Request: fold
Amino acid sequence: MGSLDTHPMSFSASPYDKAAFEPLNPEDVRAYLHKAVDFISDYYTTVESMPVLPNVKPGYLQDELSASPPTHSASFDVTMKELRTSVVPGMMHRASPNFFAFFPSTNSAAAIAGDLIASAMNTVGFTWQASPAATQMEVLALDWLTQLLRLPTTFMNHTSTSHGTGGGVILGTTSEAMLVTLVAARDAALRRSGSVGLSHMTRLVVYAADQTHSTFFKACHLAGFDPANIRSIPTGPETNYGLNPTKLLEVMQADVDVGLVPTYVCATVGTTSSNAVDPVGAIANIATMFNAWVHVDAAYAGSTCICPEFRHHLDGIEHVDSISMSPHKWLLTCLDCTCLYVRDAHRLSDSLETNPEYLKNDATESGEVTDLKDMQVGVGRRFRGLKIWMVMRTYGTAKLQEHIRSDVAMAKMFLDFVRADNRFEVVVPRNFALVCFRIKPSGCMTEEDADEANRQLMEKLNKTGKVYLAHTMVGDKFILQFAVGSSLQEERHVKSAWDLIEKTTSTIME
Ligand SMILES: Cc1ncc(COP(=O)(O)O)c(C=O)c1O
Reply:
């Protein structure tokens, strides 16, 4: 008989013993995260002095870091050192207060804490049963947000405290919100046509203004709509680049006249190029005549509607089928957090529900709970409700409104600077915190010369590393976008950016 040490059932230490490798050792978790939190806090202290745009060449990281994975362990300090020396210099710092490009991706201590805790718990709340608190927190946070946005109760979930008929879900991106609602609208239209399968697909038509985010056209493609049936309706300065309801009516009627089936209209509140606002109520009235689904994409500007003075942009929302907005853009909640609301939650689950044997459970069978997997593409899902709840719980509505208002006030200040300098023009009215402006043609300068001057201005500004501005084309003109809203931004950053813009313009105009 062998000794205990050599017995196959012996519990003595072996190279494969769990004790030799404990990736979730609580003391290591504490030590690593303290280092990570110190890094984050230092990052926010110093990011202002870092170049907003990195100055690195494609492939630079492969040259700096080992090309093959290490076989042996290293101290976590080595990993953090490589993060500091190789990764940080290659980042575009959206957290910098000198970042004025695109739309801001706002953030806050409460959101980061929520995201960190959600990552630590690693919840996968596909069904209510998989984590009741995760589902209920998401429902609660979404219902709180409907109240901040003063959305009709029809968008709220049916719970013990709210008697809504709708439903909400937190997705990763607006693109996903578009995709799932397009699929639901597609299936509903096919069912109405009595079609089995996709045989009537070629008759279904979708509509949006030409200013709609390009991701809408991608989502239509993914949802199987015929590219020939995707109507991109031209807009112009007469509607400040918003969708003209009369044109929409004409296009929809023309489609019906040839036997096509209007299925879905996407209206945007705050377009990406120029912050145009499509008239939600008028569009909903027209779409209803044709039984088409209306989705409102308020990815960026939706957050402003927590302030009463901006809420009119959603007038008529009670008549639409769905709306999505992204607190990861402007409501101090880190990526990813897109809130999708539908007036009738069943219209999503009718298309997206799955019910495999291994996920069957009493709670689902009871019909009393929401299984959020049935309102999204995937099955697994992050505990995103925690961070948005922590933001609303910690800061309160008044502070969140203050945050939106101060960004808008800074954008107005910038607008006044631009208006006071007659070398510039403001191209479209400012609706939120985005100012679209450009050097205007003067003297013998043509429109093309002005475009070139603006291009040069942007390049020179961005090369300094002191600011980052993006551009767009509106009505064939090259436009600079100045988006206020990065969470660390203060008036002084806007003033020094303007100072730099003025001086750089002088060097170009000379
Ligand atoms: C109005 C609007 N819609 C949609 C999108 C695409 O959003 P996502 O990247 O979340 O899919 C954006 C991105 O900036 C946007 O501004």
